[in-house]
Amino acid sequence: MSDHDTTPELDEAFATFRSGGPLVVPAGAGAAREVARRRRTSRVVATGVIAAALVATPVLASVWADSDPPTPPAQTTSPSPDSPPTAASTAPTPSTAPTSAAPPNGRITEKDLGNAVLELPAWPGTLADECPAGRVRFSHGIAQRPSGVELRARIVQVVHADLDRDGAQETAALIDCSGLEMGEARVLAFDRDRAGAIVTMGIVIGQTGDIGGIRRIRGEDRSVAAEVVDRAGDGLPDNLAQRQWRTYSRPDGTFVQTGGPTAFPANPRITDLAVDGSELRLAPADGDKASGTLRLTVRNDGPQRAAGPRVRVALPKGFDVTSLPTTCTRFTSSRGADFTCRLSALPVGGRATLELPVSVVRSQVGTGVVGTYSAEVWWSDTDEGLPYPEPADAKKNNVIRKDILVTG
């Protein structure tokens, strides 16, 4: 019998299945043959159904992906070397290590710094008793001791740089403490703590060694650069002082110089001048007068050539220079007469002599030691005649005071 002859029975079986009828197989040999035919027919139908299902699979996968994709099973076997990596095998594992907190923001504005309480180290020397130190409250960039002393601290300039190398910027401030006759500047570094309070990191640079002043600062990547002037800058006109840029960093917790020159050469306008002279003796002259010659010796002890030495002589009231050299100028006051004289340039080791004829009325001053005169030598190239300072190790021999003696 052909398999096609079983089609009516198969159709009947499906019809019975759809209608929910009984599927009990009848007993006996005929029933056995019936079962065998049905099994052969079922294999053919099942094969067709499986093939149809395989063809439809891509469409289902597409529908799942567009709606709610199922969770893929965990991979239990290693992929073959030729297989492309799957998302499960290439996805990075989230880090569980704790992240460190960002460093405090130490970039403080000049306004905020100038209206804060700052910890200032003590000032050196005689400034220690005059300049504010410790916890100091600034207002509009200025602070002063409560006792009302003349000197006051002033925030001159503020710059920023990553001074402690933590990736955040800190603040450097040029602070000056000065009055009418004295003053000093230095650079301090500031940061903020975790609570946001301003803390002092330390002194970046002060007026030590050959540094006579600090003019300005600038922030660099991890350092602060300062424009400094030589020690002579305290008494030298600003345009004549020597200037250098020096760089300071904090590689190991302490500020040190890490760039720029480390010393100034000898300032070409600074030299050690000296003046010498003996007592002034006046002898009787015409009528009631007494006269004599004031002789002064000026020398240059170095280390530089003095282009324009000047000598000032002060005489008591009643004394006068009778024949004033053309290089000298007279200044008269109630105390007496002053004479300022210009000398020619003096090389190192050079000497010059100044002679001034002096007279006085004897009846007005009497005889014997009747007073003193003073003489001072200095060097200046300015029209105002402001004296240039001398080297730090210079001898104090640029001023003399001597007796005036009138004989009978």
Record the SSE blueprint.
Elements: H1 7-19, H2 29-66, H3 87-90, H4 110-113, E1 117-120, E2 134-137, E3 142-144, E4 152-161, E5 170-178, E6 183-192, E7 198-205, E8 211-219, E9 223-230, E10 243-249, E11 256-259, E12 273-277, E13 280-284, E14 289-300, E15 309-316, E16 320-321, E17 328-333, E18 336-342, E19 351-361, H5 362-365, E20 368-379, E21 399-406
Parallel strand pairs: 13-21
Antiparallel strand pairs: 1-2, 3-4, 4-5, 5-6, 6-7, 8-9, 9-10, 10-11, 12-14, 13-14, 14-19, 15-18, 15-20, 16-19, 17-18, 20-21
- Kindly state the percentage of residues in helix: 10-25%
The proportion of residues in beta strands is 35-45%
Would you identify the regions where 5 or more consecutive residues have pLDDT less than 50? 1-6, 23-91
Indicate the overall shape. Answer: elongated
**What are the secondary-structure elements, in order, as H or E?**
HHHHEEEEEEEEEEEEEEEEEEEHEE
Radius of gyration: 51 Å
Helix segment count? 5
SS content category = alpha+beta
Strand element count: 21
Kindly, what is the distance between the CA atoms of the first and last residues, rounded to a whole number of angstroms?
Answer: 179 Å
Mean pLDDT: 81
Q: Largest sheet, described in full?
A: 10 strands, mixed
What does this protein structure show overall?
This protein has 408 residues and is α+β, with helices and mostly antiparallel strands. Among the domains are: 150 residues, no CATH class; 134 residues, ntegrin, alpha v. Chain A, domain 4 (Immunoglobulin-like, Sandwich), CATH 2.60.40.1530. Helices cover 15% and strands 37% of the residues. Strand 5 and strand 6 form a beta hairpin. The protein is elongated, with a radius of gyration of 51 Å. 25% of the residues are buried.
